[in-house]
């Protein structure tokens, strides 16, 4: 049940304790993909996952601005500090738990949010306020995951499938030409870069031309299936905390 | 230019320093109107206002969860603390200013956000980081403003105009029957209530049946025109701070 | 019972759960009225209100520095950030509640404090720590309220009644000459100004010559009577929080 | 110049960079002395010191609630957390510095505030925002200092001199009978107590009957003279920070 | 140069801008390995790395308590919140930068610290305060890294090499018997566990009997060599921030 | 039992509720004594005290960076803000209490930490989380205490006894020559200095040549004996909070 379109009486009448919160970012994704990529993909995966399971699940509105200061050199990128992001997500999630929706999956579309969401999940779960786990769609798509870049094959593919008009097809070649091969600037297993602009000229990592619409369809199917399994696991899990040894 | 669908190169090529950020809330609006009312109305007004002016304006994604703990007794209502809300809005806005979009109107759809947005505007403006002013659509619609309730005539009207399928028409009578006449519980000019549930049974204030589609159209036109004028004023204003006396 | 002059054993022997906390500001009030105007008026109203009711009421010392950065261009104006002000008031109030004085009226003399005090009241009341409501004297004086400015008719009148020697009568004409007609600089129902110096040369809003001693007496009587009624209402109110719907 | 009674134009016309801020506490002082003791004594000393020097000095309103949780078992005692106290004092002081009053003495009447005020002084001074030093009157009265208790000889004496009607003379014997000899409960040079109620039954430490009016007069003279010397030193001091070695 | 044993004049006479800060944790490492494992290993690697390079490097004292709440069910485990840990590390590092040691490697021995240290590095580097990168020894030891558990082969091996007397050899079998095979409890690529006690009975992950002294020697050599290369890279890197696009 | 070298099973098997946490600082101690002086001395005293008592006591790792910004002009000095220091110590201590070690002595070696540790002790004790008292070794050594400076007779003596190789004997004369006689720059009983560099050229206060090895041995014995008595008192104390009066 989508909170944006439901009434409070609809929610009251629901038999459910499961919720999903899409979490994205508004940030550069190269000259060919929209700044909203991470919101749009997170929402698409969340919606498909919720539809796949045979349970009632509350679907919260997407959180649109995340941890993205690493893209600050690229116009239009928005961000908040990690502290503020954690608090905003944690408190929004707590308000769901207040109504009994206390098993929550954060469906994430942005790599920069991953650490912060895990921290939020731990904070709320250990405090017994809610059981909260983050799920990042491009980490769960099997062998595709290795191709994840930024505005690269995976994100381009998924967008071509779900929002094809938002990919500037005429700039794919430009995007490819200015792209970096990999994320970061590594020495001794350490990424020496903190800003994406240190290693990519146009903000792209990976080759977007390898992201076909068909691949996007497959990615969505993989992510959906995995999310559905996770939702089942979260619903059934014994979330009581272990005893002190 | 909508940041969600634009690329960073689109934003780079823009000649603009003006931006709007829709700010809403996901909270109960009675048995007949959706929890997303304040987001949907803020977005509709923001989009119409941006379209009306003869200037380039950046349009950020809407902030979906606000200051709404006063509705916490009604299922599905989401909220964050006022501190966290202020920080989230202020930092998101600062990231726009970082790219030169440093004249910003916060187009707000929720009464509970008003004080916090004014505080954020003051904080950023006085610090010289950006010139930021909040605009709350139902405060600017002339004599209609006096009819503002909660899920009442104004919000119902505007939704019937912009998202008619989201109004549960079959529950309008129920909504009306359980509604309060006015917001709050007043003695000596002081509102003694802090939770909406102290004075409204079903979350409604005002009579939604007085909110026709036509009235909604008029409200949108009034809000749009007023926002357009404000955008011009914000664009032209001398925002330097006064001298110490 | 005034906490400043009472001993702890006096307080221990009191049968009471009601308290008032005067809250003011030390800030410019034009060339003719003292920087302490908002403290002095808040204290006068608080004391008169306490005396008027037929109940024991604890009277805390006045909080002298508030939310007044908007007057920062005028020498002598003191302020703290809104965050710090809220915490200071909230914690001071909580310490009263610790002793059982957990129904508290914040008697306020400064417009800039209004939003922050309402937020503090909500925070403490919803948390069940104390029932706290703010009361701002110039908002409760009937038709006079429409004349409220800054260092204008109302404040000048009240001071002439309670502290006549603190009005520099010889500068009333100067104060009037440099005064603004209204508070703020409005376009499209939005106040575009954040600093008082953007719209008033000498810090005055409204005509102080319309603030006679007799009017001040009437204002005090109105505020006193209203506060007394509020104190009764606060004492009698069922402050339990509503059930979850 | 007293900020409470001065106008902003009076302050503007002042040639000064020196200010004093009285800092007190509203807390138990035994059955015989008022809860406001620390505010009243701090104000008396501050006023006398300002009058003694041959310079213009701005006198801010007293801060009435301080670090006093150690007295929380005694009705009427008010307090805020140390964090909030530090922020409130620091920001109030910074607002004075904003107008050029950037050499500031915090005239303190409460032992529990001492550490926090020193921390605030260090924070502002090292940041170059203002030069701020705390001064606690009962630490500067020569051999009398050794007699400092709580509601004991020194405070009782000073109050008998400055506010004789606020000492409940008929309870002096009771106060003396229930008093502790010294502050704290010491083992191995460590005070094992955190609450005054751990070592004093009625909140008194020291013998109030040894606090005559004459002694109070002498104390005020000593404190005044010392404060005057300090004000001169603060006015003349080179407050630039040392070079990095 | 070890800050613990050097004098300030020694440090003053140094030609250097490079520093290392060992960061550990005091937390359970099974029945056979000490709670201090992560501090001891971080220090050993840091010292060996500093010795290997042909540059002067400042060596700060190790930070002994980190992000380890996940081990809270095991007696003796210490931790602080992630917020506090980040602030403590960031401010300690900033104090080094104050003296010109503004290229800093955080030599880390604990998995739970990784995210927080990366965040600190980003915060300080983007602010231009210092260039700070974290280095976690067990992530840089080539194919060994895949064997990393907790109190498992790698940590046991390294301790047997550097502090053999701290491994309780008589409990290795017990440690092995109660160990988990892998870290976490995974479904759909998501770790559903937040506390180590959810998946390991005795706190061990991996087989400590596979951690020979010889393997430990090899691990130290690998980590040392990698750290030395990193120190060179950090010393030589252009750390200016990229231009806005 | 030393937490660094014990296993969690060792700690589990302990019958104890008493713990010590050494707290130091890494800061200048003149040209002759190491930056780690306050850590080394705190650890030596803590270890000797623990050994002296006939009880099981948990010994936590030392906290190495404290409140030392006052020495910031001297290279190599590290510090964190007082807020962060308090939080780090308080949370580390709370994690010990979580395992039942809820009577805790903070064995401190640095004057700058004293106020902050007392505040932490009050915060945790009043909240009922743990009973925590700070103990600063140079405050408990009888008449020697009066000789305490900085890198002066006491610290030099103790180091000569416990870590003689860390005293640069060849620079004792230099240290003495540049030393200040006393700590601070006093007028009217107020220390006008906030940075040590305002009153000492080389960072030394007091004459280190008066700190013989023999004196160091005596100091350690005095501190050990006093700490042992304190540990007994802390173990036996009724730590319930007093009743509200």
TrEMBL record, chains A, B, C, D, E, F:
- Has keyword Metal-binding? yes
Required co-factor(s) are:
Zn(2+)
Q: Which UniProt keywords apply?
A: Hydrolase, Metal-binding, Zinc
Gene Ontology molecular function: any one: metal ion binding
What Pfam family is a match, any one? Creatininase
One GO BP annotation is: riboflavin biosynthetic process
- InterPro entries (UniProt xref): Creatininase-like_sf, Creatininase/forma_Hydrolase
Q: What is this protein called?
A: Creatininase
Q: Which organism is it from?
A: Natrinema versiforme JCM 10478
